[in-house]
Amino acid sequence: MNQALMISLLRKLVNLMSKFWTVFSHTYLSKVKSKSFIITTAIILALIVLMSNIQSIIDIFDSGEADQLAVVTEQEEIYSQLESRLEADFELEHFDGTLEEAQDAVGNEEYIAVLDIRESEEGLPEATYYSRDYTNETAQNLLESQLQQVKVEIATNQSGIDPAVIASIYEPVSFENELIATGDREVSEVKTEEELNGARGLVYVILFLLYMAVIMYGNMIAMDIANEKTSRVMEILISSSSPVSQMFAKIFGIGLVGLTQMVLLLGTGYFVITQKQDELVGGVFDFFGLSDISFSTFAYAVIFFLLGYFLYATLSAMLGSLVSRTEDVQQLMTPVTFLIIAAFMISMVGLGMPESTFVVISSYIPFFSPMVMFLRVGLLDIPFWEVGLSILLLIATIVVFAIIGAKIYRGGVLMYGTSTSLKDFKKALQLSKKE
Amino acid sequence: MTLKLDNVTKRFGSFTAVDGLSLEIPEKNIFGFLGANGAGKTTTFRMILNLLDQSSGSITWNGEKIDYSKSDEIGYLPEERGLYPKLKVRDQLIYLGKLRGMQKKEIVDELSNWLDYLKVPQYMDKKIEELSKGNQQKIQFISAVIHKPKLLILDEPFSGLDPVNVELLKKSVVELKNSGTSIVFSSHRMEHVEELCQYLCMMQHGKPILHGDLREIKRSFGKKNLSIQADFDLSFLENIPGIVKVKYFGDGVLCQIENEDVSQRVLEEISGKGFIRRFELDEPSLNDIFIEKAGESYE
User: Locate the ABC transporter domain: which residues (chain B) (predicted)?
Assistant: First the structure.
């Protein structure tokens, strides 16, 4: 290669990079400085702070005194047994008076309810629960089950059975769980219970983040492009730098906007939780159950998150370039939204049964794999080739979409009209070709 | 630095938008592009700018193919106004200028010079949507020329402007030409082209129907305009051989004649018939030529 050619190629590359950088930073800065971004982020931050302090806020409004529940009974023994067994957020009080007086007291809101305990002909306890309405079912159920136990104890005593027999009847069965070493793996490689719980937590977090990111930032990309078409500034833009580099500058720029927002949110969340550290046992990761996750699961989380974002972002950019009015963006984005909802649903089902064939198949379909394959990697022990294949398929799809997307983008940005059908894809492709 | 189009054709499916267009646009000149709506002007511009690929033929600038590495040397003012409505003039131009390879400081200096020149310095920090259409057009114009392009493409630059501002922009277009910019400029306002351009191309249904030096075109057209004002009836002129068309105005006529010699015959015919107020032999206007040429290709 001769020197002149090298220099001209180098100049082209520098030119391309500087244009890319200009579009990238313009996209990022104009979005981050926009009112809607600042307001949305502020509201979510306020919500996070509010939610994490919810207990303190409730305490402020709470009188601090526990509710009282009146018990009318002549059976001192039963009352004391019931009281000693009960662990609840209300207190029992042995009411000194008739049932009618107790009921009146409930009417005056001195008690939340009245429990009338009598002795049956067999010498066993019987009860009636009087309350104003059916809203406090918890208290009722709690009292019923405790009284049941008291009754069992009294009945056993009466029949003269050895309490040890009763105890052995109620003792839970011994049920242990052991793993078998198979040919190709050691038992020690199987995910432990703790790892699995941690992974489940992380899978939840990533699924939600990806779902939110795709819906929010995918729309943002499509909107941004449609906006530039509506204002017709697009024609000037693509006459000064290549549409392909613009498309990717937008995808990366808005990706960074998303990253900024997530770092802000997660950072605030982290800060708020560490501030309340004394209320927590263990660290922040324990709080989310994330302390027992292996490094590879974290690595996969990042890989699948990024690939998922790029897949849907490329798709959104392509669709955004097809519409000429921002009003039409929603219409074209609906199928994309359905895809991501489907992926989310499959992974929600998959959390319960990650080994079902349905989930396994979905984990190779590129639109679903960022969520579903990550779920499988997180919860199961999957041979590396399976994950690798899924990642390769995903990358290949992204590349194909990027190539088609870039072509459609180039033709689509010159296309103006109201229709938003599949024919537009063909038209846009045609415009970017020679004939 | 010539822009050369060689047998350029653009087809959209079965529709041919530009058909075998060959042009040579000399440097440091204003080249006029004429044509009715849908004649293929904008498509040609988009091909020159590399926004569309031509189906066949070649387009070269200074002997090289135009691609994005040359975009810093090219300025473009599209027919439709295209600016970010919500951005301030300053931020808008900084972004568009950077995309043409300029530095921020350079852009702001140039911008304030241009705003002063176009007598709207107060718009520096206004949003585009707050400006009137004409003033938006001025900003659009600045965005096309701020980076001192070597090749400038202006698609209907004067639409939506009042006569004072049209003059202002015309003046700056001429100044740009004098400072060495090659300008391609389209319009369906014949008088603008006549005034500014030395070379032109007239398009009809994607085909060039006239092409070359303006004076040459007028001369080779042959026909001249003869306007006569007299106190007597001039309708007998219609029967004089060599007179192509007669158009009546208030107290006079405008005849199109086949060549200069016919005028002398007419003069002989009318002399002595009465009082003649005016007898004037004129070059044909571009408008006449366009109407005739466009009409021919319709037949």
Answer: 3-230
**How many residues can be counted in chain A?**
435
Chain B residues whose CB is inside 8 A of the A5 CB are none
Q: Do B76 and A228 touch (CB under 8 A)?
A: no
Provide the residue ranges of all domains of chain A, joining segments of one domain with +: 69-170, 193-432
What six digits make up the tokens of B249? 């105005």
Q: Does A291 lie at the interface with B, CB-CB under 8 angstroms?
A: no
Q: Does A132 touch chain B (CB under 8 A)?
A: no
Residue A2: count other Cβ atoms within 10 Å of its Cβ: 6
Question: Which chain A residues contact residue B76 at CB under 8 A?
Answer: 235-236, 239-240
Residues of chain B with CATH 3.40.50.300: 3-218
Fill in the DSSP letter of residue A388.
H
Cβ contact, residue pair B13, A11, below 8 Å: no
Instruction: Quote the strand ranges of A88-211, DSSP E.
Output: 90-94, 113-119, 125-131
E strand or H helix at A270, and its extent?
A: helix A243-275
- How far apart CA B17 and CA A386 sit, in angstroms, is 52
Interatomic CA distance for residues A289 and A278, integer angstroms: 17
pLDDT tens by residue, A190-216: 666 666 777 777 788 888 888 888 888
Residue A11 contacts B where some CB pair is shorter than 8 Å:
yes
> Which residue of A lies nearest to B71 if distances are taken between CA atoms?
A240
- Higher per-residue pLDDT: A137 or B137: B137
Interchain contact, B100 vs A240, CB within 8 Å: yes
State whether B69 and A11 contact (CB < 8 Å).
yes
Fold classified for B3-218:
Rossmann fold (3.40.50)
Q: What is the pLDDT of residues B141-164, one digit of tens each?
A: 999 999 999 899 998 888 878 888
Task: Report d(CA A305, CA A308) in Å as an integer.
Answer: 5
- Domain A69-170: which CATH number of 1.10.8.60, 3.40.190.10, 1.10.3720.10, 1.10.287.70: 3.40.190.10
CA angle, residues B276, B280, B282, in degrees to nearest 5:
165
The interface predicted TM-score (ipTM) is 0.80
Smallest Cα distance from B26 to chain A, Å: 22
* A404/A300 Cα distance (integer angstroms): 27
Q: CB distance B71–A239 less than 8 Å?
A: yes
